[in-house]
Protein backbone atom coordinates (compact mmCIF):
# COMPACT_ATOMS: atom_id res chain seq x y z
CA UNK A 1 0.00 0.00 0.00
CA UNK A 2 2.81 2.42 0.87
CA UNK A 3 4.54 1.71 -2.46
CA UNK A 4 1.34 2.42 -4.38
CA UNK A 5 0.83 5.65 -2.43
CA UNK A 6 4.42 6.74 -3.13
CA UNK A 7 4.07 5.98 -6.83
CA UNK A 8 0.85 7.96 -6.99
CA UNK A 9 2.47 10.93 -5.23
CA UNK A 10 5.43 10.87 -7.61
CA UNK A 11 3.10 10.83 -10.60
CA UNK A 12 1.21 13.86 -9.29
CA UNK A 13 4.45 15.75 -8.63
CA UNK A 14 5.78 14.96 -12.12
CA UNK A 15 2.52 16.09 -13.74
CA UNK A 16 2.49 19.35 -11.75
CA UNK A 17 6.13 20.07 -12.61
CA UNK A 18 5.52 19.42 -16.30
CA UNK A 19 2.53 21.76 -16.27
CA UNK A 20 4.54 24.49 -14.54
CA UNK A 21 7.36 24.23 -17.11
CA UNK A 22 4.87 24.41 -19.99
CA UNK A 23 3.18 27.47 -18.41
CA UNK A 24 6.52 29.24 -18.00
CA UNK A 25 7.41 28.46 -21.62
CA UNK A 26 4.07 29.79 -22.84
CA UNK A 27 4.45 32.96 -20.80
CA UNK A 28 7.98 33.49 -22.07
CA UNK A 29 6.83 33.01 -25.63
CA UNK A 30 3.93 35.42 -25.14
CA UNK A 31 6.29 38.03 -23.68
CA UNK A 32 8.59 37.75 -26.69
CA UNK A 33 5.72 37.96 -29.15
CA UNK A 34 4.15 40.97 -27.44
CA UNK A 35 7.37 43.04 -27.34
CA UNK A 36 6.97 46.00 -29.66
CA UNK A 37 7.62 49.73 -29.93
CA UNK A 38 5.37 51.58 -27.52
CA UNK A 39 4.69 55.30 -26.98
CA UNK A 40 3.51 56.97 -23.80
CA UNK A 41 3.00 60.50 -22.47
CA UNK A 42 1.77 61.62 -19.05
CA UNK A 43 -1.37 63.74 -19.18
CA UNK A 44 -1.25 64.21 -22.96
CA UNK A 45 -4.13 66.40 -24.16
CA UNK A 46 -5.31 67.59 -27.56
CA UNK A 47 -3.46 70.75 -28.59
CA UNK A 48 -1.03 70.61 -25.65
CA UNK A 49 2.76 70.34 -25.55
CA UNK A 50 3.83 66.95 -24.16
CA UNK A 51 6.93 64.77 -23.95
CA UNK A 52 6.45 61.57 -25.95
CA UNK A 53 8.48 58.58 -24.73
CA UNK A 54 9.11 55.75 -27.20
CA UNK A 55 10.14 52.41 -25.67
CA UNK A 56 12.21 50.56 -28.27
CA UNK A 57 13.29 46.95 -27.57
CA UNK A 58 16.00 45.08 -29.47
CA UNK A 59 14.45 42.05 -31.20
CA UNK A 60 17.09 40.82 -33.62
CA UNK A 61 17.33 37.03 -33.77
CA UNK A 62 20.86 37.27 -35.14
CA UNK A 63 22.21 39.52 -32.38
CA UNK A 64 22.28 42.67 -34.52
CA UNK A 65 22.02 46.03 -32.77
CA UNK A 66 19.33 48.64 -33.32
CA UNK A 67 21.32 51.55 -34.74
CA UNK A 68 18.57 53.87 -35.99
CA UNK A 69 15.02 54.70 -34.95
CA UNK A 70 12.67 57.04 -36.81
CA UNK A 71 9.15 58.29 -36.01
CA UNK A 72 6.69 59.96 -38.36
CA UNK A 73 5.01 62.92 -36.65
CA UNK A 74 1.53 64.22 -37.59
CA UNK A 75 2.99 67.52 -38.92
CA UNK A 76 3.33 68.97 -35.44
CA UNK A 77 3.86 72.71 -35.00
CA UNK A 78 7.06 72.24 -32.99
CA UNK A 79 9.34 69.46 -31.75
CA UNK A 80 12.44 69.24 -29.58
CA UNK A 81 14.48 66.12 -28.78
CA UNK A 82 16.13 65.25 -25.49
CA UNK A 83 19.90 64.86 -25.32
CA UNK A 84 20.70 61.13 -25.51
CA UNK A 85 24.34 60.04 -25.02
CA UNK A 86 25.65 58.00 -27.95
CA UNK A 87 22.82 59.08 -30.27
CA UNK A 88 22.22 62.06 -32.54
CA UNK A 89 18.74 63.31 -33.46
CA UNK A 90 17.61 64.96 -36.68
CA UNK A 91 14.28 66.72 -37.27
CA UNK A 92 12.76 66.70 -40.73
CA UNK A 93 11.06 70.08 -41.10
CA UNK A 94 8.57 71.31 -43.68
CA UNK A 95 9.79 74.88 -44.13
CA UNK A 96 6.80 75.90 -46.25
CA UNK A 97 4.22 74.65 -43.77
CA UNK A 98 6.27 75.46 -40.68
CA UNK A 99 5.81 71.97 -39.22
CA UNK A 100 7.96 68.97 -38.26
CA UNK A 101 7.29 65.77 -40.22
CA UNK A 102 9.57 63.25 -38.49
CA UNK A 103 12.44 62.70 -36.08
CA UNK A 104 15.30 60.23 -36.55
CA UNK A 105 17.80 59.03 -33.94
CA UNK A 106 21.09 57.51 -35.16
CA UNK A 107 23.57 55.64 -32.96
CA UNK A 108 27.26 56.41 -32.89
CA UNK A 109 29.69 53.66 -33.99
CA UNK A 110 29.75 50.67 -31.60
CA UNK A 111 26.55 51.96 -29.94
CA UNK A 112 23.12 50.36 -30.28
CA UNK A 113 20.33 48.36 -28.63
CA UNK A 114 21.02 44.66 -28.25
CA UNK A 115 18.38 41.91 -28.22
CA UNK A 116 18.34 41.89 -24.40
CA UNK A 117 18.03 45.68 -24.02
CA UNK A 118 15.60 48.51 -24.68
CA UNK A 119 16.02 52.28 -24.96
CA UNK A 120 13.79 55.28 -24.29
CA UNK A 121 13.61 58.05 -26.90
CA UNK A 122 12.03 61.32 -25.75
CA UNK A 123 10.73 64.15 -27.89
CA UNK A 124 8.66 67.17 -26.85
CA UNK A 125 5.96 68.05 -29.39
CA UNK A 126 2.86 70.19 -29.71
CA UNK A 127 0.09 67.64 -30.26
CA UNK A 128 -2.70 68.09 -32.81
CA UNK A 129 -6.21 68.85 -31.62
CA UNK A 130 -7.61 65.32 -31.94
CA UNK A 131 -8.40 62.44 -29.52
CA UNK A 132 -5.88 59.89 -30.88
CA UNK A 133 -2.49 60.17 -32.59
CA UNK A 134 -0.85 57.39 -34.61
CA UNK A 135 2.95 57.56 -34.83
CA UNK A 136 4.39 55.06 -37.35
CA UNK A 137 8.00 54.14 -36.59
CA UNK A 138 10.93 52.48 -38.37
CA UNK A 139 13.60 50.43 -36.59
CA UNK A 140 16.88 49.74 -38.40
CA UNK A 141 19.44 47.11 -37.32
CA UNK A 142 23.21 46.96 -37.83
CA UNK A 143 22.84 44.02 -40.28
CA UNK A 144 20.60 46.10 -42.56
CA UNK A 145 17.28 44.68 -41.35
CA UNK A 146 14.48 47.25 -41.33
CA UNK A 147 11.29 46.76 -39.31
CA UNK A 148 8.39 49.11 -39.94
CA UNK A 149 5.99 49.58 -37.04
CA UNK A 150 3.08 50.93 -39.07
CA UNK A 151 0.32 48.30 -39.11
CA UNK A 152 -3.22 49.31 -37.95
CA UNK A 153 -5.24 47.15 -35.53
CA UNK A 154 -6.77 44.00 -37.00
CA UNK A 155 -10.47 44.09 -38.01
CA UNK A 156 -11.42 41.90 -35.05
CA UNK A 157 -9.59 44.16 -32.61
CA UNK A 158 -6.48 41.99 -32.41
CA UNK A 159 -2.89 43.17 -32.56
CA UNK A 160 -0.89 42.84 -35.82
CA UNK A 161 2.70 41.66 -35.95
CA UNK A 162 4.13 45.19 -36.13
CA UNK A 163 1.52 47.61 -34.72
CA UNK A 164 1.98 51.34 -35.17
CA UNK A 165 2.52 53.16 -31.85
CA UNK A 166 -0.71 54.91 -30.88
CA UNK A 167 -1.31 57.56 -28.24
CA UNK A 168 -4.72 58.37 -26.78
CA UNK A 169 -5.00 62.00 -25.68
CA UNK A 170 -6.97 61.71 -22.46
CA UNK A 171 -6.03 64.99 -20.76
CA UNK A 172 -8.06 68.21 -20.76
CA UNK A 173 -7.84 70.20 -24.02
CA UNK A 174 -5.41 73.09 -24.06
CA UNK A 175 -8.19 75.66 -24.48
CA UNK A 176 -9.69 74.56 -21.16
CA UNK A 177 -7.00 76.30 -19.11
CA UNK A 178 -9.24 79.29 -18.44
CA UNK A 179 -11.29 77.08 -16.16
CA UNK A 180 -8.45 77.28 -13.66
CA UNK A 181 -8.58 81.07 -13.32
CA UNK A 182 -9.39 82.48 -9.91
CA UNK A 183 -13.03 83.62 -9.52
CA UNK A 184 -13.65 87.35 -9.40
CA UNK A 185 -14.16 88.90 -5.96
CA UNK A 186 -17.83 89.49 -5.07
CA UNK A 187 -19.11 93.07 -5.46
CA UNK A 188 -19.71 95.07 -2.29
CA UNK A 189 -23.36 95.42 -1.25
CA UNK A 190 -25.16 98.63 -0.22
CA UNK A 191 -25.02 97.61 3.45
CA UNK A 192 -21.25 97.28 3.46
CA UNK A 193 -19.36 99.57 5.86
CA UNK A 194 -17.73 102.58 4.11
CA UNK A 195 -14.01 102.55 3.83
CA UNK A 196 -12.16 104.13 6.73
CA UNK A 197 -10.99 107.67 6.13
CA UNK A 198 -7.22 107.92 5.82
CA UNK A 199 -5.41 109.28 8.85
CA UNK A 200 -4.01 112.16 6.77
CA UNK A 201 -7.58 113.33 5.94
CA UNK A 202 -8.74 113.52 9.58
CA UNK A 203 -8.09 116.90 11.41
CA UNK A 204 -6.04 116.76 14.53
CA UNK A 205 -8.22 116.85 17.68
CA UNK A 206 -5.75 118.99 19.63
CA UNK A 207 -5.59 121.64 16.91
CA UNK A 208 -9.37 121.70 16.79
CA UNK A 209 -9.67 122.37 20.55
CA UNK A 210 -7.01 125.06 20.46
CA UNK A 211 -8.73 126.88 17.60
CA UNK A 212 -12.04 126.71 19.43
CA UNK A 213 -10.49 128.14 22.63
CA UNK A 214 -8.92 131.02 20.70
CA UNK A 215 -12.31 131.96 19.24
CA UNK A 216 -13.91 131.96 22.69
CA UNK A 217 -11.16 134.21 24.13
CA UNK A 218 -11.49 136.62 21.19
CA UNK A 219 -15.25 136.85 21.72
CA UNK A 220 -14.75 137.57 25.43
CA UNK A 221 -12.25 140.31 24.60
CA UNK A 222 -14.71 142.00 22.23
CA UNK A 223 -17.46 141.96 24.87
CA UNK A 224 -15.13 143.45 27.51
CA UNK A 225 -14.02 146.20 25.14
CA UNK A 226 -17.58 147.17 24.26
CA UNK A 227 -18.59 147.22 27.92
CA UNK A 228 -15.68 149.47 28.80
CA UNK A 229 -16.60 151.98 26.08
CA UNK A 230 -20.21 152.20 27.27
CA UNK A 231 -19.11 152.97 30.85
CA UNK A 232 -16.87 155.77 29.71
From TrEMBL:
Region annotation (Disordered) ranges:
150-204
Q: Where is the signal peptide?
A: 1-35
**One family name in Pfam for this protein:** DUF1775
Give all residue intervals belonging to the YncI copper-binding domain.
36-169
Q: Which InterPro entries match?
A: YcnI-copper_dom, YcnI-like_sf
Q: Magnesium: is it a keyword of this entry?
A: no
This protein's UniProt keywords = Membrane, Signal, Transmembrane, Transmembrane helix
Q: Where is the composition biased (Low complexity)?
A: 183-201
Q: Which domain of life is it from?
A: Bacteria
Q: Transmembrane segments in this chain: where?
A: 209-228
Output this protein's name: YcnI family protein
Instruction: Identify the taxonomic lineage of the organism of origin.
Output: Bacteria, Bacillati, Actinomycetota, Actinomycetes, Mycobacteriales
Amino acid sequence: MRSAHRASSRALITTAATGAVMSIALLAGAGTASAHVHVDADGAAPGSTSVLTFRVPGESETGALTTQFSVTLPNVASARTEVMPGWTARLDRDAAAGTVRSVTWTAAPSVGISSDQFALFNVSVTLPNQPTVTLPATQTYSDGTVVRWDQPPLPGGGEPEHPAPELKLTGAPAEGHEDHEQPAAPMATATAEPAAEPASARPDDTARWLAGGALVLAAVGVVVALTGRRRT
